Structures are given as C-alpha cells and as structure tokens.
Amino acid sequence: MRTVFTWLSLWICGIWFIISGFVKVVDPVAFSRKLDEYFHKVFHLPFLDAYSVGLAMFISVLEIAVGAAMLVGFKMRITAWIALLMMLYFTFLTGYSALTGAVKSCGCFGEAIKFTPKQSFIKDIILMVFISVIFRQRKEILPYLKNEVWVNLTVALFTVISGWITIYSYRNIPLIEFHEYKNGNPFPITGIEKDLSKGTYLIIILDVKKPIPQWNSLEKLALQEQAPYTVIGLSGEVKSDIKFFNEVKKPHFPIYSTDKDLLKTMIRSFPSCVLVKDNVILHKWSTFHIPSPEQVAKKLS
C-alpha cells in the first residue's frame, strides 16, 4: 500500500540518492579526499586515509543502489533500514560540520554543487522527514513493478553499471569532470615559473616525495628526439624537496613548484600527464595509463 505522500517520498529520496551517488561515482578520488577531511577533522582517525578510496567507491555505489531500490520498491524492509542508517550518518556529519565548521563543504554532490555545512544540514533534515515516512511504511510498500524479476534486474543493473563507472573513473580520468580544468579549458598558469601561453607542452604532474614506479616511462617521454612537445614537470612540494629530488633522480626535464591544491583539483592521481597547447588542455592521462611518445604525438595530429 502506498499513500500519495509515501509514493512522493520514495521518488524524491530515490532520485536524490541516485543523483548524489552519480556525481561521486564519476569522480571517486575527489569524494575520497572529502572523506579524508572527515577522518581527520571529525573522527580524528587519520589511519583511515588508506581506505578512503575504497570506502568512497562503496558508499557511492551503495547510494545509487538504494536509490534505485526505493524507486522500484525492492525489498523495502531492508532498503528502508539502509536508507535510514545512511541518512542518520550523513545528518550527523553535516550537523557536526554546521556547528563546528570543521569541514567547509559536505561533498554530498562532489564538485558539481557546493553546499555550505548549514545548507547541507537543512537538506539532510528535510530528507530525514521523507526517509521517516518510508521507514514507517516499509512493511506495506510493495514492488512498483509486478514482475519481481524486473525489480531485481533494475537494482542489479544500477549497481553493476555504477560499479563499473567508479572503477573506470578511478583508473582513468573521471568520466565527467565538474571542475574547471577539464579538456578544452585553459591550463592554470598562475604561480608557475614558466610561460605556457604559447607552444606545446607535455606536463608531468608528480609528487617528488613519493616513489614513482613509472619513472622510466616518464623519462622516455623527455628523451624522445624531435618530439612535437616540450616536457616539463609540476609538483606541489616546496622547492627544497624538488631540489633534493633533482639531485637524486637527475630528471631530463625541469620541475617547477606550484600550488598542491590546484594540482589535486586538476588531476586525480600522481604521477599524471597533461598535454597543453597554447595554454589549452588537450588531453590528460592518469597514473595507470602513462602515454608513450607515439600516443602523445597522435593527440597532436
């Protein structure tokens, strides 16, 4: 049995959960960094950083699966409990942030939409009203589709597809980038000791304080003769760390220091490569897909 308000609650929460989960599955690393903030500033458990990417992927996929389940009425006794527990958890986090200012943005919609802690808390309180209605009626809510096979298949498809998307986005460039440094947009040159406004550059973004297993592949890019690009490196570390790295590794390309937060916004893994021509981003490669010189040249042809 569904009253009009129960039906409305299911659709509002279902769609909200799916949208909220989707903007996270397409960029799991960004969501994991938000989890890191909560681990440090709310729970004071920094050791959880090692699990943040996996947790980000799991939470995002679960959010979509629960949203799909609410839309079709899939096993509502279980679904309602999961939705209630998730909302209690989210409401606690946003409420804590609103009171203390520990985290400035909840990350509910990744980088697509930014909410202040107060706005996030109000949003969660409103959603809790709808979730409470669903929870009270959970035993009476029947599947929306008469054929149970289609109900199960719908939830399974949402879960599998969102799982594939988040794995793909983790190993590659995010499927959809909501920030301003995506392909086709200007490359941020503020604070970089190099004029990138003219010419073609392959920019290697790296963390000079961590091991770089792909080092030989990166050096190969710089050693390519008559390459149609100039290789430079960017790191968010201080100049003294870069100087030490240069003394140890002796790279065949210059490395410049720039803003670490900017680099984390622009790229999701280190090291990564960004192809820039006349200050416009042409293509990006993640740490799992460091390009060969031929692949870079192909992007310029």
List keywords for this structure.
single chain; 301 residues; alpha/beta; Glutaredoxin; 2 domains; 5-stranded mixed sheet; 10 helices; 5 strands
What integer value in Å does the Rg equal? 23 Å
One letter per element, helices H and strands E, the order comes to HHHHHHEHEHEHEEH
Shape estimate: elongated
- The class by helix and strand makeup works out as alpha/beta
Instruction: Give the % helix.
Output: 40-55%
Largest sheet: 5 strands, mixed
- Discrete helix count: 10
Q: How would you write the strand order of the largest sheet?
A: 3-2-1-4-5
| Overall number of strands | 5
**Which parts are unreliable, with pLDDT below 50 for 5 consecutive residues or more?**
none
Tally of distinct domains: 2
| Mean pLDDT metric | 90
In whole angstroms, the N-to-C terminal distance is 61 Å
Strand coverage percent? 5-15%
Tell me what the structure shows.
The chain has 301 residues and is an alpha/beta fold. It folds into 2 domains: 4-171, no CATH class; 200-300, 3-Layer(aba) Sandwich (Glutaredoxin). 53% of the residues lie in helices and 9% in strands. It contains 10 helices and 5 strands. The chain has a 5-stranded mixed β-sheet. β1 (200-205), α7 (215-223) and β2 form a beta-alpha-beta unit. The protein starts with a helix and ends with a helix. The model has no long low-confidence stretch (mean pLDDT 90).
